[in-house]
Write a structure and sequence with these properties.
Length: 409
């Protein structure tokens, strides 16, 4: 069976990182009958006739790869396919038309509308939600007209239920959390080895290192982690791994909003109107924060393996999964995460492996870190069970089974 994947690839993107980890095990299962059709994300999201022409040419090359395959896998995150709903659908429609059979992996899934509007603000929110669901409505209409052509991969049972209620054949929906590492790789990432390496680079020997992984920005809740650190003993340090998301970078400016938000918490202001000692407190806090910046896939995993615990203080944005959470579970690291929909759903697979706190409640986070809630024996046992069953090999096999299901009439 010749299979092609169209996705962001070899770029600074969580989905690209996931596909790069999936590629090896999938090639082994398919005997080399796997092609990657890179999605020209930067060109699709650019504006102007020159960018449009370049995007059209680059996409045509990927469509040729898709047309040659028996099954195409679409790693679907709408924002990667264009800027507007119209453009996203046009790109996606060209891919679906070119593919003989299609497996859709939903990194974002259809979401429920907000409550019935009772104000102008809530009415605007409802209108925005309706617009944002345009592509999903069109996609699902296409799927319902020709169920045999499609199979669907989701990361949670909730998404499987919702797709079923929206008219998708449940026999063609496959659910499993994301995974990044093979069993052999998991065995190789020992905590002690990589902790020594981390300490050598960042000078954190004898400290408790809490890792914050992913793009810098509001939805990742990095500020919440820093506020929690301010309420923890001085031997607790935070390692921030990740850079700016390419789509958030302000052009021709060194004033980047996510960076500015962090420096406000860490950099002394010498503002006379502030309470006494505030600048000294910021300076002391900065000594306990270490920026690793954007790193490659291997270094990302090594740093995560070396941390004592992983902090995921995300906001609720309707995402169905988290790459850093999945990697942390793969590596059996203790995890503190917000009680968002995605993490609650992940907990249905991971049992007691996750330690939850409320969105934005840095005091609760600090208290749970202080009492080492994520290190409880029951959580360690749950992480071991999860890591043994959810692997990238299992994900690769699920892709193959999903592709085979499209052969059934």
């Amino acid at each position: 069976m010749k299979l092609a994947i169209i996705s962001s690839y070899k770029r600074d993107c969580g989905i690209a990182q996931y596909v790069e980890h999936l590629e090896g095990p999938l090639r082994e299962l398919l005997g080399g009958n796997l092609s990657i059709a890179p999605l020209p994300v930067d060109l699709l999201r650019a504006s102007g006739p020159m960018a449009h022409g370049m995007a059209k040419k680059a996409l045509a090359e990927s469509l040729a790869i898709i047309a040659d395959a028996e099954v195409v896998v679409v790693e679907f995150e709408p924002g990667l396919f264009g800027r507007s709903q119209r453009q996203i659908w046009a790109t996606l429609r060209s891919i679906l038309d070119a593919g003989k059979r299609v497996v859709l992996t939903y990194h974002t899934a259809p979401t429920l509308p907000p409550p019935t509007p009772t104000s102008i603000r809530s009415l605007i929110s409802l209108a925005r939600h309706s617009y944002a669901q345009t592509v999903f409505r069109r996609l699902l209409r296409m799927v319902r007209r020709n169920q045999n052509k499609f199979a669907h991969i989701v990361q949670t049972r909730r998404e499987k239920t919702r797709l079923t209620l929206l008219g998708v054949d449940p026999e063609r929906i496959f659910d499993m959390p994301l995974s990044y590492f093979t069993r052999a790789e998991k065995a190789e990432f020992g905590h002690e080895r990589y902790r020594r390496k981390l300490d050598d680079v960042y000078g954190t020997g004898g400290r408790k290192v809490l890792g914050v992984f992913g793009f810098l920005g509001g939805i990742k809740g990095t500020k919440v982690a820093l506020r929690a650190l301010d309420h923890l003993p001085s031997d607790h340090h935070i390692l921030i791994v990740g850079g700016l998301h390419p789509e958030t970078v302000v052009q021709a400016s060194s004033e980047q909003p996510p960076i500015k938000d962090l420096t406000k918490l860490l950099e002394p202001t010498f503002d006379a109107s502030e309470r006494d000692g505030a600048d000294d407190q910021r300076a002391a806090l900065l000594q306990r924060v270490h920026f690793a910046g954007a790193v490659d896939n291997r270094t990302f995993a090594e740093l995560m393996a070396g941390c004592d615990a992983i902090l995921l203080p995300y906001e609720e944005v309707g995402q169905t999964s988290s790459g850093p959470a999945s990697q942390a579970l793969d590596l059996q690291r203790p995890i503190y995460c917000t009680r968002t929909g995605a993490f609650r759903e992940l907990g249905k697979y991971a049992g007691d492996a996750l330690s939850f706190f409320e969105i934005g409640n840095y005091l609760e986070l600090a208290q749970k870190i202080s009492r080492e809630d994520a290190m409880l024996p029951a959580r360690a046992q749950a992480r071991a069970r999860y890591s043994d069953t959810v692997t990238v090999e299992a994900r690769a096999l699920m892709y193959v089974n999903a592709a085979k299901s499209t052969q059934k009439s």
